[in-house]
Design a protein that fits this description.
The protein is an alpha/beta fold and 276 residues long. Helices cover 24% and strands 27% of the residues.
Length: 276
């Protein structure tokens, strides 16, 4: 019996987001439009999940991507650090009408709360926000003569992120600043779907330049053309006494070859079998 081949791909982008339920907390990567997984967001709109809590640095730009998800009425609450800008008219309209909730989080706190979820940290103290309305109702503490506010991690059911390339094991590389929140969101979510531009053979990614390991994630999908994603469960061994670590599931999405490429590959495989 042959060895099992690890391949974290799925047939299309619709399959990658099919399991996202109503009421889910969804992290969406991107800093404005940089690194935003637009095609995965479009697939989520088509899938129709509603009453979502969305975590993102912004609250949508123009009428596409996250803004389109908001306009579709599928978002109940936004958790972000920069909700308003010159082209955030969709969010502005919904917020003024009381159709979407907002939890405003300073950008550094947002990044650290997401990172803390992936690292298994139960909470942390930060001076950012102390003495402002953002600290109302939160625990505060004086440490070494400075006032701090207690913040808690942000966990998610699903993360939708974007990367430049991936192999079938789920290792990722990002394109410059498009990396932004991708790695920490992938670690903080139970399931991660990654939109990528290219799937490369195993061993093609530079280990020194790799930004994300496939042991953390699950489906991925490719930018233009068909999308792919796959599932995989990561179980962590219990290395100490005490609370059992969380079990993490992740999703990823990869590139599916074009139809001519698939035909050539089938012809090559058939030729090899005939030669044998």
């Amino acid at each position: 019996m042959g060895a099992r081949v690890i391949d974290k791909t799925v047939p299309d982008v619709a399959a990658a987001v099919a399991g996202i339920p109503d009421g889910a907390t969804v992290m969406i990567g991107g800093f404005g439009r940089a690194g935003q997984p637009v095609e995965l967001i479009d697939a989520l709109i088509a899938q129709g999940a509603r009453n979502l809590t969305v975590v993102n640095n912004n609250a949508g730009n123009g009428d596409t991507g996250l803004a389109a998800l908001l306009a579709a009425g599928q978002v109940r609450k936004m958790i972000c650090s920069f909700p308003r800008q010159s082209d955030s008219w969709v969010f502005d309209r919904l917020y003024r009408a009381g159709e979407v909730e907002l939890e405003l989080v300073p950008q550094g706190n947002l990044a650290e709360r997401i990172r803390a979820a992936g690292a298994g940290i139960g909470g942390f103290f930060t001076p950012t926000g102390f003495g402002t309305q953002l600290a109302e109702g939160k625990e505060t503490r004086r440490i070494d003569g400075r006032e701090y506010v207690l913040e808690y991690p942000i966990h998610a059911d699903v993360a939708l992120i974007s990367a430049r390339a991936a192999d079938r094991w789920g290792n990722l590389v990002y394109r410059e600043t498009a990396r932004n929140f991708g790695p920490i969101m992938a670690a903080a979510a139970a399931t991660t779907v990654v939109q990528v531009d290219e799937i490369v053979p195993l061993g093609s990614l530079d280990p020194g330049g790799r930004r994300d390991s496939g042991t953390l994630r699950r489906p991925r999908r490719r930018g233009r053309g068909a999308r792919v994603a796959a599932r995989r469960r990561v179980r962590r061994r219990r290395r100490h006494r005490g609370p059992r670590p969380l079990r993490r599931r992740c999703l990823m999405t990869f590139v599916i070859p074009s139809a001519p490429a698939r035909r050539r590959a089938r012809a090559q495989r058939a030729g090899k079998r005939a030669a044998q």
